[in-house]
Design brief:
Blueprint lengths: L1 H14 L9 H4 L1 E12 L6 E3 L6 E6 L4 E8 L2 E13 L2 E6 L2 E10 L2 E6 L3 E3 L8 E11 L1
Antiparallel strand pairs: 1-2, 1-3, 1-10, 3-4, 4-5, 5-6, 6-7, 7-8, 8-10, 9-10
């Protein structure tokens, strides 16, 4: 129930967000907890996967210059850390790290932000053994 309320809050924040020239990297600096992380089938958005369902916790630390550290902890897997940088191009956030670049539509409002993936990835969101093209949405709450 609490996770549903957090997700609802993150999605509402996305609707009330400010982006574009008014948001600078320094606005994003700080420590963020991932409150919601979903993959939805591109062709059928009703088919969704909650990436945090197994008890995973994700913490994102962003420095004022855009350097970041992403730490993923899960009861099922070893703790994982990734480093990289982010930059802003209007309301597009560009992540560059670990030989991977990804672009997200940024929605930012005070102590909440949402990253909406601009590129599709392939995942089996309904566990039927067939990977589907998916779009990811990640919601963060500032500590």
């Amino acid at each position: 129930m609490r996770r549903s309320l957090l997700l609802a809050g993150v999605l509402v924040a996305a609707c009330e967000s400010t982006t574009g020239p008014g948001v600078a990297l320094s606005n994003l600096a700080g420590t963020w907890d991932v409150a919601a992380w979903e993959r939805a089938a591109a062709e059928n958005p009703a088919r969704r996967e909650n990436v945090l369902a197994d008890g995973m916790s994700v913490v994102l630390r962003i420095a004022r210059n855009g350097e970041l550290l992403l730490t993923v902890s899960s009861p099922l897997h070893a703790t994982f850390a990734a480093t990289g940088t982010i930059s802003l191009r209007g309301d597009t956030l560009v992540y560059d790290g670990d030989n991977h670049e990804a672009m997200f539509r940024l929605r930012f409002f005070e102590h909440r932000m949402t990253w909406l993936a601009l590129e599709r990835e392939t995942h089996d969101v309904n566990d039927d053994g067939v990977p589907e093209e998916t779009v990811q949405t990640v919601g963060f709450i500032r500590r």
